[in-house]
């Protein structure tokens, strides 16, 4: 009755994550530190029994949980859902070479700090702004 083969579920979930993250099967394979054809083989049904270490590596590369990939959970899990971080942003960050990560982190911290300071300044202005008729003084 309506039972979907486990590999079909894995392939569907991988395909969905590829689309969401804007990745090709080759890019996802390489991000998982695997041969370039690994994800393509899963999608084509040529690898019908991926080992647990491959599922774990793919979950990391696709920013989701192993339970999601295996069809045990309907929620991808991971940072995008819990922290409300755009999965495409996480995907882009994962592609940054290790040698450049410190520089990029500092740049992002600077942008975040500037945005926070602007938000705080706007909040202070709104609190100081007189509201309604009671705040207006008559000459």
Brief overview, please?
The chain has helices at residues 6-21, 25-31, 38-44, 52-61, 66-70, 79-82, 87-94, 98-128.
Question: Your description of this structure?
Answer:
By secondary structure, the protein is mainly α. The chain has two domains: 6-86, Orthogonal Bundle (434 Repressor (Amino-terminal Domain)); 96-128. Helices cover 63% and strands 0% of the residues. It has eight helices and no strands. It has helices spanning 6-21, 25-31, 38-44, 52-61, 66-70, 79-82, 87-94, 98-128. Helix 1 packs across helix 3 (38-44) and helix 2 crosses helix 3 (38-44). It starts with 5 loop residues before the first helix and ends in an 11-residue tail after the last helix. The model has no long low-confidence stretch (mean pLDDT 81).
What's the layout of helices and strands?
Layout (H helix, E strand, L loop, with lengths): L5 H16 L3 H7 L6 H7 L7 H10 L4 H5 L8 H4 L4 H8 L3 H31 L11
Our measurement of the CA-to-CA distance between the termini, rounded to an integer number of angstroms, reads 81 Å
- The strand count comes to 0
Largest sheet: none
Poorly predicted runs: none
Shape assignment: elongated
Number of domains: 2
H and E string: HHHHHHHH
- Please, what is the CATH homologous superfamily of the largest domain? lambda repressor-like DNA-binding domains
Helix content estimate = 55-70%
């Amino acid at each position: 009755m309506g039972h979907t083969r486990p590999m079909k579920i894995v392939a569907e979930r991988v395909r969905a994550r590829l689309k969401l993250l804007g990745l090709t099967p080759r890019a996802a394979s390489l991000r998982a530190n695997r041969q370039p054809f690994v994800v393509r083989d899963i999608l084509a049904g040529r690898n019908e029994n991926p080992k647990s270490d491959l599922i774990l590596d793919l979950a990391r590369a696709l920013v989701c949980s192993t339970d999601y990939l295996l069809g045990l959970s309907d929620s991808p899990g991971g940072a995008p859902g819990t922290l409300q971080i755009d999965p495409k942003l996480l995907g882009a960050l994962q592609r940054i070479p290790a040698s450049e990560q410190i520089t990029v982190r500092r740049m992002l911290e600077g942008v975040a700090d500037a945005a926070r300071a602007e938000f705080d300044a706007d909040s202070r202005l709104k609190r100081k702004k007189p509201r309604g008729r009671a705040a207006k003084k008559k000459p």
